[in-house]
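Prompt: For my understanding, could you write out one protein's sequence and backbone structure tokens?
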Amino acid sequence: MAKPVFLGRRIRALRLRLGLSQAALARQLEISPSYLNLLEHDRRPVSGALLLELARVLDVDLRTLAADSDAELLSNLMEIFSEPLFEEHPIAAADLAAFVGGHPEIARAVLRLHQAYGATRGSLETLGGQLLDDQQDLGDLGALDRARLSSEQVSDFIQRNGNYFPALEAEAERLLRATGPGEADHDGDLFGRLARHLEAAHGVRVRVRTVGEMRGAVRRFDPERRELQLSELLRRGSRNFQLAAQIALLGSTAVLDELTLDPKLTGDESRALARVALASYFAGAVLMPYGPFLRAAEAERYDVELLGHRFRVGWEQTCHRLTTLRRPGLEGVPFYMLRVDLAGNISKRFGAAGIRFPRFSGLCSLWNVHAAFLQPGRVRVQLSRLPDGHTVLAIARTVQRHSSGYQAPDAPYAVGIGCDAADARRLVYADGIDLDNAAAAVPIGITCRLCERADCTARAFPSLGGPLRIDENVRGVSFYAPVGR
């Protein structure tokens, strides 16, 4: 026996789309309005003959009316509504099935809309990131809501402040004066000075623990036991850094609270993340005091490795500190900075020297920070030219995180800094480079979607700046690069 077919909601949806009353449709079907009402409320099944008549009168394909034809549509919509985008609006499978059954054309429209959304998402995100960067001073762009990402809000917070926080610089200088005569760790006893201060000022003792005891952490503060635990993985400079960061969290709470009142830090998560970033800034200012560090940087022509050895810090910490030298009247070279992993993900960025990094898309593959992975541990220098003619000197090197043992996977990343070519002569890295020869500079972009270099052989995606023209009979080095005829 054939299974009864109930198509009430679908019939009603198609009738309303055509603007027909029940009486008008009933006349065309040659049935009574009361019987049509029973059909639309699923109180009567649809016979085969009536199904054919419905398809003719409503001018639809039989598959549009057949119940089984929507199984794939329902499956597709269930996949769509399972995405994180709809986490705050969960939809039950039964409700979705009813929606598909009663409004199949609207369901198909939703599917087409999502397909269009997926096809254009990358382009819209790229353009949106550029728009937000260009319009961030317009005040009421909160409706655009900078992707609601805490990390994005903190990156923007640092960028708005030029990565310079004078209140934290003053706090760091007060701490150094209180802990001893030296301004930096030239005597090798900064750890002892900071540890003694932590115990005297906050009643907290420092303990170095094994990897197993730390359970994956490199720093853990136990407020009940008044104990700061540091991992044995940390080398001396990193131990000093983590110790100083904890002192900021315990002893500079008023300054941290005031700074994180920024109205564009809209959530608890972004404010908490900002506190961590500011504590790290404080730690860098303790290990590399502003005055001595700036004088050393100028004297050594910004040799990152040499500065790192002198102040007993790593490549990344030194690079980050160089971007903070913005004290009025005592400015250093304006540097940008970024950090990328092997997959090209940008996990840290600070724009300066006229550089703005992509917010969502991947960074141009011609940047030397990517090439740094080809020669791990070696400094790579590159004179680069942006599409607008702006030339920068870029310096990059890979960095290896402290290994937690033989079986721990390697997780290398690369850190790069750079400055305008006009300031490059102040850097040791400019020696032997013809800074005035713009033709010798490597042509780079920010991201493929926004780059106007149509002839770039490294292009991975077409530019949004113009139409895509493909000649199936001509193939260039890059699929999207035009070639001569």
